[in-house]
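Hey,

The postdoc asked me to send both predictions to you directly instead of through the lab channel. I've kept everything plain text so nothing gets mangled by the mail client. Protein one:
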Amino acid sequence: MSTPGSILAGRAMMLLNHYKRVPIIGLSCSIAALSILVWNPATPPIWVAAVLSVVAFGIGATYPVGTVSIQNAVSRYQVGAAMGAMNFFRGLTAAFIVAIMGAILLATLGAAPERGGRVTVMTATAANALGADLAHVFRGVFAFGVVCLIVSLVALIRMEERPLRGRSDEIPKPA
């Protein structure tokens, strides 16, 4: 669902002078939607899918703006290195965030290997047999997601909004 958000933001960049508005609105909607799951993680699955679609749409709106902004900020001779660095750090950050979310999930389930001994984790089948509700386990994961989205929104707001260069615009040579 991030693809439609990405397409919308890319089209908006061609038409709007203030191209950061679309991803700012998208991220704000993502924060609000994910906050719903923090507040009520036991939401029915169909509603969780709808909420996560809104989250993905808002996050998708940031992709083209970030890419084009970086390309616009460097000389054309440095675009390859800038895109490589952006993709490296985007992938590294994503892996790091997924690892943190996994650690939050495992810690909430009771896995604590640092205590030594055998790790015992309650599986979903065992939890259902005991009548336990595992929805609360995801509250911390969703809350961490909200924090990450807020950090992204602050970074986007602070990002300088330069006029976009066209193909025919004079591009300065590197010093």
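Protein two:
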Amino acid sequence: MDSVERVTKVLRGELPDRVPVGLHCYLMACQMQGGRFNEILRDGEEMAEAQLKAWRAFGHDVIMLENGVCAEAEALGCVIRYTVDGPPHVEEPLIKELDDIEKLHVPDPERTFPLTELLKTTRIVKQETGGKVFINGRSDQGPIALACALTGPERFLTMLVDLELESWCRKLVAFCSRVNVALGEAQRRAGADSSTIGLAGTSLISPALFDAFELPGAQAFCAALKRTGGFAFVHACGDETHLLGNLLATGADCLELDPGTDAATCKRSIQGRASVLGMIDPAQVMRLGTPEAVRQQARRMLAMMGPGGGFIIGPGCALPADTPEANVQALMECVRSEGTYGADGRPLAK
């Protein structure tokens, strides 16, 4: 069973031969390519080579392609600062006055930098892996996160609870959703099997605000991806135990989650309704832990999340650039030896 078959079975609610591994490793891949983040993350060929180098080293099942969470903001006109040794960030928001929203237009991903480079990366990785690896061509920030980038995070989150600005905020997040959809559909045309948007979790907004402002756009994104025949993923950082029902309401095929979310509640709530990717701590375990610590957490998550399928193991968020390669190898070796499914539908984790 190759990686595409393995992951597709999980996403369709079927039992694969073993638990697949997804690595959110774009920063680590850049480091393996020699650093130069400011160059690699702006060049589709360099990004592809970095991701392919990581895949050849580790052999993971899901290659997750991105250049940081500023691509759509940059395509729309935000000033972005790229650094030599870390991810990019928005240096200057685009929207200064409320009327600036009228100047916004959905960028064509096939013609607008840096979205063009993301699509180039996807096409190269698809070709070089021969269609045998599951490709997640990410669509960057979800509606609220993109609105925060365009307006300024503190400013937009304050506006979000101002009743007089409710209709303006709804208009902006609806526009941001259309940007997400355009890039997601373009990623599919470039050869991606799925696409992801990052949603605002309970560390930023309440479940009620999520339903009012984030959910409609997330639902539109997931529906659009499914219409293309692809799979829709949504990402939410932190402890989202109390947001699981809201995340499921997006219609996503897969929720990308951190280990802060309670695994037992997650398994009970989501089994049979969607799949989960993640649950391994990218910082305290993958970056700062030992290979044995990685194996211990992997075994716990295989035992808790693996039974009956529906689980893709991996770091819940992006691996830090300086994550030890030995720790990633420990994760891969553990899953290969102990993540195989037995006749009872459980992985063989000790």
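Summary for protein two, as requested: The mean pLDDT is 97.

Thanks,
C.
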